[in-house]
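quick one, three chains, predict together pls
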Amino acid sequence: MESVTHAPSTEVLRAIVEAAADGVVLCDADGAVVLVNHAATEMVPGDVTAVLDRSREPGETYQTAVGDRLLRVRREIFGIVHQAWYLRDVTAEAARADALRAERERTQFLVEAGRRLSASLNTRRCARATAELAAGLLADVAMVVLPPGGMRRTSWLRSSEAGLEEGEIPVASADQVPGLAEALAGFPPVPSRWLDPSQAPDWLLPDGFGPVGHLLVTPLPGNGVPAGALVLARREGGKGYDDETETLVRVFAARAGAAISAAVLYQQQSTTNAILAGDLLPPPLPVVDGLELAGSLRAAQQTALIGGDFYDVLPTSEGPLVTLGDVCGKGPRAAVLAGQVRHSLRALLLLERDPEKLMRLINRALLGSPTPSSHVTLVLAAIRPADGVIDLAVAGHPAPLLLRADGTVEEVDARGSLLGAIKSGMIVLRTATIELAPGDLLLLYSDGITEAFGGTTGREMYGASRLKTALATCAGLPAGAVVERLEQLNSDWLAGGVFDDRALLAIRRSR
Amino acid sequence: MSVTSPVKVAGAVDDYLERVGAADEFGAIDLVLGLLGDGVPPESLLLDVIAPAQRRVGELWAAGDWSVAREHGATAISERAVAAITTSVRPRPTKSRITVACADGEYHALPTRLLAEVLRLRGWQVDFLGANVPGPHLITHLHQTGPDAVAIGCALATRLPRAHATLTACQAVGIPVLAGGAGFGADGRFAVKLGADGWAPTADAAADLLEEGRLPSFPTPGETLAHLADEEYTLFVKRRGEILARVMTELPRRYPRMLDYTQAQVDHTADDLGHIADFLAAALYIDDTRLFTDFVQWTCDLLRARGVPARSVALALRLLHDELHDFPRARHLLAEGTLAADGA
Amino acid sequence: MDTAPFLIELESPDPGVTRLTLSGDFDYTTSGDLAALTPTFMNSGLRVLEIDLSGVTFIDSSGLATLIHLYHAAEEHPAEMRFVGMTPYIAHLFEVTALDLVFNLPTSAT
């Protein structure tokens, strides 16, 4: 403590302070500047007191900008009465940290973009994800303009603080946004600084957005399929698009474009599939006076939704012809043959309504079919709704069940050969004619129902007797409820196990 | 817009119930269309008349007052009453697209259908896929239509494992999931556990949630269910057949009255045992004891209402407990279930 | 569901006679096995083709189709095809499809 009594001379102090690499500013007890070293003069060319924040406590550190420099300043007690301000130029250090943070932000952005863009195969969802992702880091407003696809109008999705908006513009309007028509045509992006933001049309921006400061238009490159364009805008006074951001936008646009074009491709293909499969799905049942009709069809291959079981109700002037059948095989191949049988029946019905004669015609048609294994089992029921009389022919198929209004269940006494199977063309048919009294119900079903493996052991067949027992509990129910209940009981039996195509069709004579 | 008092709507529930119970389809439809003509809002008809009446139908069946057939018939009429209301209103869609579907294996379509119709009435563009929607079908639909959200209805907790698979698959294709229905728990705790993006107890609450934009635009998948690592659920489901077969052979030895059962009665017992197994599996999957004990309690009440001694339930639980040597979690559930059955 | 594995046994109890013993689930997924094997026994020496189905637990339409193909192939060969083993389930199936009127079945099963 001895040395404290001899304060160092001003000359010694100046020498020490001048030698320091950090900037040093010394003030006396009244706050007047007594000394500024060379380094400090370098850092603050003008009035040095401008960087001294006297509200700071001794020991405190803060940062302040001087021109394009960033200074870190620390206030300290110096000696007994003096105050010292130490200045350090941290511009480079901060820039490094900023660059690192920006790099991390870009990586995180691309990871999140990958996660969201890879999820969907839906064009709108992918476009939405693109706009929402971009509106966060890359822009104040982001708009995805989808490819026109040969139409006069094209749709867009926009994300901003106003939320998600969607709309359509005439394709010709793309010319109003600098660079958009080029981007939609797949030309490389034009740097943002060449685009005049004041030219942005109103439809590009949400209401009350204010003047645009920066505009960036980037094509979404698809894999051979155009994927549209991404339009980004920042407000006046906001940060411009530097080279690094423009590079990031291009990388992002490539990912978004790949996702959108895959989705466009998927949508085209699934639309085609849906059109083709639509004809193979069970038809909506017609309303027939005096009858209740209800059907259920579950295909074994769940994704295809189509299979070898089918049914149809074909109206004629005398009453409907109801058909339920099962073609050999599974999946789309079987469904195509099922569709052919349904169409043949529809055409044959113009000439012939008798179930037995129809069976023989279908059999001959199948035997002449170039497709191997065109085997079909079929039930045909020609119904006269007025008096409930039904002519039935059964070919290679389980006989339909009859549920009387009092709850008794009978098996219809009809049987016959598998169609399209025996080359000699010889088929045997024993037809039946039955009468539905009001409240009676006729159930047509495929063997997928009775041959469902399940039960407690998982290896037991559901069987015709369980089906009959279940049907007996359905007396008095509307046809729809009967089908639903039988399908539910059968599915419970399967307990989620693998199953065959299953079809049920109920015809009930109204009371 | 409504000039009808809530009292009138509440009074209509009994009237409506009586008509569906008597299989009076035209009477039931005339009643709701009459109220619609009197100015009762269609949403109120769906949620304040048909929904409570259908709840009563379920209770009447559970109490043994109504047969299964009567219950099914009533539900079929309610389906038509809903169709009659919605076809006469025909709202114009002004909002975006929502997909509504029942979980895979779920046949109780009406509650989910009511949600679909309420959303439609409020201007959403709704695709209702119906009961028992296979997962792959739903996912294909989501890719094709790209809705803002998918609402999944699950009335029975036993469908939860499959509902979870569906829910995860929907989230994986980037569509947020709104869960609803009694199957997710009265307080929605199973919806939370399975990582649904939202849950609502009723159709109108679900509609409010969607309207207020409380679902994220992109889903956040739930945590993985760590307890499944013990494989008890997997092994139990895989061996379900053999385990139940052993219990079925053991049952008559411990409960001699079974020896005189008809085939139908034996099948019925096997069905009941199957339900116990399904709920046990669901409780193992979700790791929730109350899911199982609530079911046991409910079953005992149900049996008692039908004059069947609940002792058989406790016995079945004990036999299952003895079969499942290497399943500590299942044994714990069964022990708790036995307590619930004894106390019931 | 665990399915019963589909097995085909081929033996020749007498000269010119080939016996096929099938067992397990004979369906969409397994019927191709028999079709693939057909050329190996449809040889010049074949006079009688015997088919034993007593071990078959399940036949679907694809299984039936394969039997019908075999029947047609035997007819053209020519060889006699006859069934020597049946179960009530299969007999019922043949009856439903009226194949009992086409196939040569053991008398006890019809």
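The two ends of chain C are 31 Å apart (CA to CA).
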